[in-house]
Amino acid sequence: MLCIWWDQLGVIYYELLNPSETITGTLYRTQLMRLSRVLKEKRPQYYSRYDKIILLQDNALPCVAAPVKNYLKTLDWEVLPHPPYSTDIAPSDYHLFLSMAHALSEQRFTSYEDTKNGLG
User: Which domain holds residue 10?
Assistant: First the structure.
């Protein structure tokens, strides 16, 4: 599974999980901690403006787990309310996945290691 965070400028951070890994509230909170550090490096302007960082995420159980909600409060990020999956409001389907599909169209991954190396 590829976990990816992006904005209007492009990909900010991603993690390719091991084939046996699944997303839990604890793992997602850890990913958000890493994302916060990377954001400060790659997008320092987000922290120098008066607006909050706005996070759009789905309502999967790991994303709405108590540890995640509490951590997001400490970050002071605004989380956009997101209704259950709907094709007309899934920006990743239109913006991110189409460009990724185009960029990776000639790639052939035969193993987890190939995938990990090809994305890096």
Answer: 2-115
Token couple for 75: 């970050």
Tell me if 120 is assigned to some domain: no
The pLDDT tens digits for 53-99 are 888 887 788 888 999 999 999 998 988 877 766 655 566 666 666 67
> What is the number of alpha carbons within 13 Å of residue 7 lying toward its C-beta?
13
Q: Note whether residue 87 is domain-resident.
A: yes
Domain count, the chain: 1
Which two three-digit tokens encode residue 100? 């990724």
What's the CATH number where 84 sits?
3.30.420.10
Contact 78, 53 (CB under 8 A): yes
